[in-house]
Design a protein that fits this description.
It is built from 15 helices and 15 strands. By secondary structure, the protein is α/β, with parallel strands linked by helices. The protein folds into two domains: 193 residues, Type I PLP-dependent aspartate aminotransferase-like (Major domain) (Aspartate Aminotransferase, domain 2, 3-Layer(aba) Sandwich); 132 residues, Aspartate Aminotransferase, domain 1 (Alpha-Beta Complex). The strands form three sheets. Strands 4-10-9-8-7-5-6 form a seven-stranded mixed beta sheet, with helices on both faces. Helix 3 runs parallel beside helix 10 and helix 13 packs across helix 15. It is globular, with a radius of gyration of 22 Å. The protein starts with a strand and ends with a helix.
């Protein structure tokens, strides 16, 4: 037996013409609730006058009011826009949250999260994080009086040792960027609750398709939708989803106040990308596993970092909390000269920043994504002049292997 509840929220003009209708499906049918179906269906906006399958792009700055004291529910796009509303509701739906909030970039999303806190608040942060996040914490947050302690959050004992009387939150990327460490979200969330702390998880690498931190106990999840959720390297957007609706409303207030929300067209591009998330993530993971195994066999490769490999230190933790290992891997080559050779001679894989698109991209973290991280911190982490990060696309794995092999003259 399948029970389906349909909730319809309508906005109407005076002539009773339906403008838009948000339809939310809740069902006990396993088939309907599978993540593969969720990413395709999302939470669609149905337009009564056209029956459009694709969410309309409401490319407008302002909205007409029917009369004084009456509203369609929209007045100014910085505050609220139907296309962006659909993206936010869809992301919350996929992450099992109550409220979703979208931003102009992934960094804008992180900035909004830290606007929730006050001077003298202390944060425990995974030591291996995206360089842009570290730069933001150091150059912006610390100037506002926020305090940070960086540690290897893969080890729960490390986190316990860092808790202070003024600690407010634990912030992790998992897997981390670029060393691919995995933190146990369930155990971290339990520890956080014991100390009345907020657990914040950057879920960019795995997305809600492979990992849903809110279901594992986290309070806030964020993602640079620019990456896998968009999937085509053609737009910038950041997303946040939360468990607590009051917290979500605070984030929406920050979004509106700072004006760092996602634009209607960018919102539409991310919605379009999400529809193919399942097929892309599955193919990218399959390709990544193939490349990781091949790289391990090459004499010129000294180390391969990928949670899907059985020799990865947190392989079992990853299996416990995620349904897949993703399409990101890092590897260390024999010499700095070999790095230059690879980056010059690759033909199919592009030497470029970013990740998560259908095209394979290779990045040199020490001079690109992590250029602003102190040398001593990079050395401790193992981010050295021989490390490369690979975002595996959906191309033929044989062609990707051949491209790397030719570039290395292996």
């Amino acid at each position: 037996m399948v029970l389906t509840f349909v909730l319809i929220f309508e906005f109407k003009l005076d002539n009773n013409e339906l403008i838009i209708s948000f339809i939310v499906f809740a069902t006990c049918s396993k088939q309907i609730m599978d993540i593969e179906t969720k990413v395709v269906q999302g939470l669609p906006i149905h337009h009564s006058s056209t029956g459009s399958i694709s969410t309309p792009i409401y490319q407008t700055a302002t909205f007409r009011h029917p009369e004084l004291g009456r509203s369609t529910g929209y007045d100014y796009t910085r505050t609220k826009n139907p296309t962006r509303d659909n993206l936010e509701s869809t992301y919350a739906f996929l992450e099992s949250g109550t409220v979703g909030v979208s931003f102009s970039t992934g960094m804008a999303a992180i900035a909004a999260i830290f606007e929730l806190f006050s001077p003298k608040d202390h944060f425990i942060v995974c030591d291996d994080i995206y360089g842009g996040s570290y730069r933001f914490f150091r150059e912006s947050c610390e100037k506002r009086g926020l305090e940070f302690t960086y540690t290897n959050t893969s080890l729960i004992e490390n986190i316990k040792k860092c808790i202070q009387p003024n600690t407010k939150a634990i912030y992790v990327e998992t897997p981390t960027n670029p060393m691919m460490k995995v933190s146990d979200i369930i155990e971290i969330s339990k520890l956080a609750k014991e100390h009345n702390l907020v657990t914040i998880v950057d879920n960019t690498f795995l997305t809600p398709y492979f990992q849903r931190p809110l279901e594992l106990g986290a309070d806030i999840v964020t993602s640079s939708a620019t990456k896998y959720l968009g999937g085509h390297n053609d737009t910038l957007t950041g997303l946040v989803a939360v468990k607590d609706s009051e917290l979500g409303e605070r984030l929406k207030f920050i979004q509106n106040t700072l004006g760092i929300n996602a634009a209607p067209f960018d919102s539409w591009l991310i919605l379009r990308g999400i529809k193919t998330l399942a097929v892309r993530m599955e193919r990218q993971e399959k390709n990544a596993i193939t490349l990781a195994n091949w790289l391990q066999e090459q004499k010129l490769i000294k180390k391969v970092l990928y949670p899907g490999l059985k020799n990865h230190p947190e392989h079992e933790i990853s299996k416990k909390q995620s349904s897949g290992f993703g399409g990101m891997l890092s590897f260390e080559v024999a010499s700095k000269d070999l790095v230059a050779k690879i980056l010059k001679n690759i033909k199919i894989i592009s030497f470029a920043e970013s990740l998560g698109g259908v095209e394979s991209l290779i990045t040199y973290p020490i001079v690109q994504t992590h250029a602003d991280v102190p040398t001593e911190m990079l050395e401790k982490l193992g981010v050295n002049e021989r490390l490369l990060r690979l975002s595996v696309g959906i191309e033929s794995p044989d062609d990707l292997i051949a491209d790397l092999c030719d570039a290395m003259s292996c």
